[in-house]
Here is the input.
Amino acid sequence: MSTHVPAAPPVHMNRERFSPATELTAIATAQGLARTTTPFGTAWLATHHEDVRAVLANSTAFSTSGLARWRRPQSPVGDDVPEQDTSGILVSYDPPEHTRLRRMLAPEFTIRRMRRIEPRVNDIITDHLDAMEKAGPPADLVTAFALPVPSLMICELLGVPYSDHEVFQRRTAIQLDFTVSVEERVRAANHLREYMNELVDRQRAEPGDDILGRLVHDHGDELTKAELSGIAQLLLLAGHETTSNMLGMGTLLLLENPDQLAMLRDNPNAVNDAVEELLRYLSVVHSGLARTALTDITIGGQTVAEGEPVLCSLPMANRDPAFTAEGDRLDLTREPGPHLAFGHGIHHCLGAPLARMEMRIGFPALLRRFPSLRLAIASDEVEFRRFTPVHGVRCLPVTW
Amino acid sequence: MNVSADHARCVGAGNCVLTAPQVFDQDNDGVVLVLDSHPPKQHWKATRTAMLHCPAQAIVINDDV
Here is the structure.
């Protein structure tokens, strides 16, 4: 695999361990938007909670499909990006096409539907904890727990054979790794799409009792094969990359804050607020897709001209003093506010109810099973992901 | 307090159902349902939180009614 490792990721993706890096906090202005350089060229960067909300809420003025109006995207090291099929990738759709696809998927993630699958989430978590216990310490918490739990769950929900997980986990990881050459990332994305195309063919021949099967059954005439495989590819990626990084990096954060870890472990009533605080504090998605202004519009006192791109820093917004006091401090008892870790507006995370349930069950179950859980390496040796759109730790060696 | 919801705006995130289950539910398509358009006072705080947390700004509260 050819790799180009730039010195630092783009500023909006730059962190120091859990927190926005100094380079990022330094360019944020007291009010309004900052200017930043991205792989796509220069962009506005919203860092204030109010401004991020204003941008993400306004799908009339801001498009996620607007990349074509921007300069041709480039990798951080300047490679041209080959064409990529975005059919079905609903985060890059604007209304009304977005509304059409989102409406088809919303029934799959209702709270009622989540309650129905809750026993299965419990079983998957128990099975993985059993396996960890049986194998004995030490373990890499990412590969033993944080990654396989959400990955297995989204596979079952979608109708993707989990036995293929090595195929798609490796390709997803390549696709999201900005240190890998753009050609290889696009090749990985195209391989994933081929894999999904075959899966869609099988589902079309014999629809299963799962999301893909129901989409084929209920909306088969309205969706192209490319849309179906794009939807599957996006949900598969979003379903395991996000929650797995919350579980992995969240556990590290808790291990470094033993009083708060004990509170979450021992007090079932504290779990829901604690998960919201972990979501706020870690905000694993740096920014989501860039928005392109479809018209001249003023955000935070700054005029954004038609065609200009805007990035939204979710971790910065979620630590904004105007949103919450002492946002740089982790406080699992903090009263949850409307944080933006799942985004906001029409592209708000479709799987948020699933992610919340996996974390509300997963964190306490892990901490209760292994009350003496601790790092197996020095805290400063834990390697954080640096060039991916979703923040996290590469691996987390633990013992108990 | 009078509570209503804009079904066309709703994106089915389910935040309201988790925050104020006495006041909100979702239909089978994930779209918000207002169970109690005049909730009793003990649910006002949760209802306001649900409005604030709604990613689609689909919940409308009128305090004058």
